[in-house]
């Protein structure tokens, strides 16, 4: 009959400790064998893995500490491993659609509709689609063609986070009351209770959190003091945060965030229509490497994935001057800056057209994409000045 220890899968700290001991013994044996010039008789120890268990986390042999607590790090086995090639970044239009033949091949000999997308500070996505008449002969039209604009405000994408945060703040500011000698557990802060017989009022979670010492201490005494305060309060705080109420809220917040993102993406896809479009995104200041934590990037990446699955082509365009030039004039290759007399709208000094400030960039980006599709050039007013040649 085997002992319980034999049938237990090996994981956790004891397994790691055992592995470290075996590894040290092996290293010693290997070193002494090397010194004596004979082959080592031992095999290196096997790293403990609970691969036969169905548990979600597998320890990964690393320990992290901030001076206060130790964390044993683990792999999340349910997190799918993505190969680097699975990440398909959005590329410049000049790379994706280098010439007329490629454009015709990708869009089945049709001139696609072009949509411009300008990411901004207040507006996560300002989109613009220019509707030319059906028999558009690719010549600039005398009058401005009709436009479709779609603005997705940044606050819309953040609203689930904000409302969840407000709810959490409300809970954290509650100070529950207890009767004398009643046990103090984390549930007190999340449950509604009747406080008629209560005699003692407890501090709220916010109060306790603000009383926690900072993690920077300069003397040993300070460190000891901080550690004592932490040890006295942290178990209770942990208990509060691991109550089912807080965990459920976190889960609900995650779902709401995802739903909001899907709604925004679906709105853009509805605007695109069923036919494959070319969707040009300005290469704004938000393109900071692969910073996927940024909401802009997350939104764009998520959108690109879904749009590509429907046959749309998502590309980047250089957004140089797109927010300062009048799109109506740029369409006729007339250089004209827009004046910005009010906060949210601006007016062209040349043609006198009023335009929403957030849509200027999107319309210019749509224009750039359209011009590229037509003859692989860029509207003159939006052209980057030629670099001085290096001699
Ligand atoms: Zn103008």
Descriptive report:
- The chain has helices spanning 4-7, 12-36, 93-96, 100-106, 154-172, 205-211, 220-241, 244-272, 295-309, 327-331, 357-375; strands at residues 57-65, 70-76, 91-92, 114-118, 123-130, 147-153, 177-178, 200-201, 278-282, 313-317, 338-339, 345-348, 354-356.
- It has 391 residues and is α/β, with parallel strands linked by helices.
- The protein has 3 domains: 11-76, no CATH class; 84-159 and 252-382, YqgF/RNase H-like domain (Nucleotidyltransferase, domain 5, 2-Layer Sandwich), CATH 3.30.420; 182-249, no CATH class.
- Helix 5 runs antiparallel to helix 8 (244-272).
- The longest helix is centred in the middle third of the chain and has 29 residues, at 244-272.
- The chain starts with a helix and ends in a 16-residue tail after the last helix.
- The strands form 4 sheets. A 6-stranded mixed sheet has the order 3-10-9-4-5-6. It has a 3-stranded antiparallel sheet with strand order 11-12-13.
- The protein contains 11 helices and 13 strands.
- The protein is extended and about 80 Å long.
- The structure holds zinc ion (ZN).
- Zinc ion (ZN) binds at residues 326, 328-329, 336, 348, 350-351, 353.
- Zinc ion is lined by residues 326, 328-329, 336, 348, 350-351, 353.
